Amino acid sequence: MSAPRTIATVAVSVFRESVRDKVLYNLVAFAVLLMAASYLIGQLTAGQDIKIIKDLGLAAIATFGLMIAVFIGIGLVWKEVERRSIYSLLTKPLSRGEFILGKYCGLGLTLAVNMAVMVVAWYAVLAYMGASVSAEVRASWGAPATDLGMLRAVGLILVELMLVTAIALFFSTFSSPFLSAGMTLGLWVIGHFNADLKNFESVVDSRAAAWLAHGLYYVLPNFSAFDIKQQVVYAQPIPAGYLATTALYGGVYIALLLVASVAVFSRRDFK
Amino acid sequence: MRRALTPVLLVLLMASAVGLQAMRERGGELPAGQAELLYVRSPEALRRMSLSYHSLLADVYWIRAVQLYGDTKLGRTADRSYALLYPLLDLTTSLDPNFDVAYQFGALFLAERPPAGPGRPDQAVALLQKGLRAQPDDWQLHQAIGFVYYWSYQDYATAADWFRRGSRLTGAPTWLGPLAAVTLAEGGNRTASRLMWQQVLQTASDDWFRNEADRRLKQLDAMEQLDLLTRVVAAFEAGQGRPPANWEELTRAGYLRGTVADPTGAPYRLKGGDVSLDPRSTLLPLPKEQGSRP
After folding, report:
1. B96–A46 C-beta distance less than 8 A
2. Tell me: the pLDDT tens digits for B214-251?
3. Do the domain assignments include residue A122?
4. Using the beta-carbon criterion (under 8 Å), do B55 and A233 form an inter-chain contact?
5. Domain contains A211
6. Among A32, A184, B201, B224, which residue's beta carbon has the most beta carbons within 10 A?
């Protein structure tokens, strides 16, 4: 079997396993959350229901995805080792690199399907809310309820989650699930403070510390760059160059982590 | 046997929990707890802590601000000072600087006179000025600042200046320029106020604003009616040498026809010759007018 086909086979089996593990049940939680919120928000606040549902939908898509990426990502390799199924897998015509890439693509597929369903449900709720108000109210909104421009934020959330998955997978190749989850979530949090690392010289006197922080700014994954949720909700212009550079940055970082994961996993001794 | 017992046990336990809940409720409520707290007051700290969830957290703080305003206004809170209103609005707009409604509604809430609001037009202007730093070309924020100067400070020259500046911005409605002129020429009179709220009623995109404009117009109607009723009472007093004891006496004497109720349906009060709104009327407090008694 060719390498791409082998990777695809592993990926499909990861996707099937996640369906068996009832990972997609979170979609029900998402739908219930959005429908309940769309009803309750109107009772709780003065106006802005549509903005709140947009914010809530994007935040929920990102959060549900993050939970899946971290907590399934950390178990991708560890579960095979724990169940000792890795021994039989490695006797098959399957390289360690193909195994890692297949696992990664499988979780990526799970995330993509999951997000696609959430986005459809979210747009359905927004369409319903948009249809339930008068034309004058709709005309006063800065952007239509079902503004397709919001998909740009969804796209960058997917890239961000794929990066989180790559980090989780990398840690899972050599660490326990508990540590992997901690380190992945830790990097995700640090990645949102990157701007502070860049401007560290404004808070410390030490040049060495400032240089170190500056170096970390470039080395650590910059997750804040993927966050354009606020801009798309207000339909603010986002340069195509920014989207392309950020998506490419995510892709390069993912490639780096996958190469590192394959390298670490290939050297791992299972005897 | 054991299998059959489980559902029975579950039902029994559930019924016990419901029963205990009802029993506790019958025992009365505990005294009201501590007033609402705001653990994080620094917008910068909160912005950092919210990671990539700025907008969602802004929504949460906005809902808290609306709930606090509503609950305090309706007397559901122990603290009637609205002390947390500005900090909540400040946090909301720091997390989401484009949150237009938080600036506009927030300013209305803050400027409202006690007991319907904290009576802090200074904070209302500060909040709107903060909005202008984020969106300098927003005509609605200019209009809102003009409103605060008009209603809360009765500073018609400054109000007119804000309306005029707003009217020059892209997207401003055509009536904002004339409103500036009317405010400058006739600021403080009811015609100018009526014109302002009629425009808001016609152009408001939100139920809350529409209802507020409707309430303000009803207040103006009530003020006109109060003036008329005061003149009627004065006429009765001039003829009879004493104030009327009640509305029925005025009706019997032919000064009035029908019932005397404000635009919300609440009856006007007549006491010692003074006519006023019913203390339960939702139109209270009436706006202050130039040269009016405090």
Report:
1. no
2. 888 898 899 888 988 999 899 888 888 888 888 888 88
3. yes
4. yes
5. no
6. A184
A192/B51 CB distance under 8 A? yes
In a domain, A40, yes or no: yes
Query: Residue written as tokens 């802590």?
Result: B49
In tens, the pLDDT along A107-162 reads 999 999 989 999 998 999 899 888 888 787 777 777 888 999 999 999 999 999 99
Q: Testing the interface with B: which of A44, A50, A58, A157 to mutate, by most B Cβ within 10 A?
A: A44
A91 in a domain, yes or no? Answer: yes
Inter-chain residue contact A193 with B208, CB threshold 8 Å: no
Long-range contacts of B26-34 (CB under 8 A, 24+ apart): B32/B78
Confidence (pTM): 0.73
B61/chain A closest Cα distance in angstroms: 11
pLDDT category at A45 given cuts 50, 70, 90 is: low
Whether ipTM exceeds 0.95: no
Contact partners, residue A41, CB within 8 Å, separation at least 6: A49, A52, A53, A56, B63
Chain centre distance of CA B58: 21
B-chain residues near A192 (CB < 8 A)? 51-52
CA B7, distance to chain mean position in Å, is 53
Of the candidate ranges A81-95, B183-197, B274-288, the one whose mean pLDDT is the lowest: B183-197
pLDDT at B252 over 50: yes
In this predicted model, which residue has the larger pLDDT, B190 or A117?
A117
Structure confidence at residue A43 (pLDDT) = 65
Q: Which of B44, B48, B52 to mutate to test the interface with A (most CBs of A within 10 A)?
A: B52
Where do runs of H (alpha helix) occur along B98-257? 100-111, 121-134, 139-151, 156-167, 176-186, 190-203, 207-240, 247-252
* C-beta atoms of A46 and B66 within 8 A: yes
Contact assignment for A58 to B59 by CB distance below 8 Å: no
**Domains of chain B with CATH codes:** 43-180 (1.25.40.10), 188-294 (no CATH)
Q: B247-265 burial string, b = 16+ CB within 10 Å, else e?
A: beebeeeebbeeebebbbe
A61: distance to nearest CA of chain B, Å? 12
Higher pLDDT, B37 or A129: A129
B101 and A139 in contact by Cβ < 8 A? Answer: no
Range of the domain at A140: 3-192+227-267
In angstroms, how far apart are the furthest CA atoms of chain A? 71
Q: Which residues of A touch B67 (CB under 8 A)?
A: 44
pLDDT digits (tens, 9 = 90+) for A193-249: 877 777 777 777 788 888 888 888 888 899 988 999 989 998 888 999 999 999 999
How many Cα atoms occupy the beta-carbon half-sphere of B213 within 13 Å? Answer: 18
CA–CA separation, B269 vs B276, rounded Å? 5
Question: B51–A189: do the CB atoms touch at under 8 Å?
Answer: yes
Q: Which residues of A touch B209 (CB under 8 A)?
A: 47
- CA distances for B217 relative to A99, A174, B147, B160, B177, angstroms: 72, 71, 15, 20, 21
Number of domains in chain A: 1
The residue among A62 and A88 whose pLDDT is bigger is A62
CB atoms within 10 A of CB B71: 12
